[in-house]
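Weekly modeling sync, notes
Attendees: S.R. (lead), two postdocs, one rotation student

Agenda item 3: backlog of single-chain predictions. S.R. asked that every request posted to the team notebook include the full sequence so nobody has to chase files. The rotation student volunteered to paste the first one in as an example of the format we agreed on. Action items at the bottom.

Example entry:
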Amino acid sequence: MSPVAHSAVGLLGWQKFSGEKNLKTLLIFILIANLPDIDFTFYLFLGEKALNLHQYFTHNIFFVVITAIVCWPVFKSKTARYGILLVAFSHLLLDYFTIDMVDPKGFRLFYPFSSRVFNFGIFPNLLKDNWAEVFSFYNLLVIGLETALFALPVFLVYRKEFAGYLKEKELWKI
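Predicted structure, as returned to the notebook:
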């Protein structure tokens, strides 16, 4: 999935679980929802030889649990802490249902204890082999689909709350 779907789930998690509605907690929920894809930045610097690193070290239960726990001190309530853990796990769930085009297809859920890969791809994946693919019409369609299936429903269900947050000065405090 792209950052659109992961961010939408982070936004939903923030709305449902965070008692503190401010920019800092919102950014943490969205960051945690996207963090396992930090390994893709290696591709930007190392090129194709780094593609086999994507989903290797950061797409497993140990990484998501550790990153969620690192963020726990920011949140006062247990609800927010468990919410951040659920949002972290959501990344793995969404990627499980995304078509993986790079071998090995899937991610190592129990790495470093197992190298077994998991994937049940039904959602299209973004093309990323070169800049032409990144900015392709196909990718625009994929992002449109993710927006329609993930972001739009969140915004529609919570439109009154989000409109209220935008007006409040508290949201913009970090």
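Discussion: group reviewed the output briefly. Residues 3-172 form one domain.
Action items: rotation student to repeat for the remaining queue; S.R. to check formatting next week.
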